[in-house]
Amino acid sequence: MEHTKIKIGIVDDDLLFVQLLKNYIDHNGEYQVTLTSTGGYQFLTEDSGSLDILILDLRMTNGDGLEVMSELAKRETETKIIVLSSFYRRSFMGQMLKMGAHAFLPKEIELEELLAVIKTVHHTGHYFSNDQIDVMRSQLSNKLPEFHAFSKNELTDREVDVLRLVCQQLSTKEIADSLFISPKTVETHKTNLMIKTGVKNMAGLVIYAVQNQVIDPNEIVLFDK
């Protein structure tokens, strides 16, 4: 049986960049670019519900990335967003997470590393680089507002177990195997965690865990290139 490819969309107003990136991604057997757009407004009129990953620029003349993320948040889409921008600043990391991004990368990133990030986000829900974790340790835990009306003491022991493993970037199947429960039960716990904490994605759960000292930031597992 043919392995299901990761379906990717690219939204960037640099047409040459879009074409080159699409060609590169499509030549890798695990990925397929199924949608491209040169602006946020155009993208939002497309049927993008089947996308696994959206690679999104921030600054575009016809609908910027922030507008796209805001609209997708309202639609409660399952598509994971990788913001890829020449306007990259580590200090923007907190805002990107709050807006719903699952990864935030500079356009100078190596193509092979980008593919690795796509795979990580697809399987674990988020990606943080070493320097971004440093920003989280020094800024986010102290300065971001609380996401929720629950304290860590109101999470069940099993929910805390799942949250810790999410922070270690384990997949749903790996969490299920580790805790001797079904993948469906893991997904239920993840859903309950997001409802209780008020976050929108797995990246938000990691921030919640750091803010509320459920996990030491040093325990967060990082991925190499």
Overview of this structure, please?
Keywords: DNA-binding, Phosphoprotein, Transcription, Transcription regulation. It comes from Chryseobacterium rhizoplanae. The modification 4-aspartylphosphate is found at residue 57. GO terms for molecular function: DNA binding. Pfam families: GerE, Response_reg. The chain has two domains: 6-133, Rossmann fold (3-Layer(aba) Sandwich), CATH 3.40.50.2300; 157-219, Winged helix-like DNA-binding domain superfamily/Winged helix DNA-binding domain (Arc Repressor Mutant, subunit A). It contains ten helices and five strands; from the N terminus they run βαβαβαβαβαααααα. The protein has a five-stranded parallel beta sheet, with helices on both faces. Residues 143-150 have low confidence and may be disordered. Helices cover 48% and strands 12% of the residues. Helix 7 (157-167) packs across helix 9 (183-197), helix 8 packs across helix 9 (183-197) and helix 9 crosses helix 10. The protein has 225 residues and is of the alpha/beta class. The two termini are 29 Å apart.
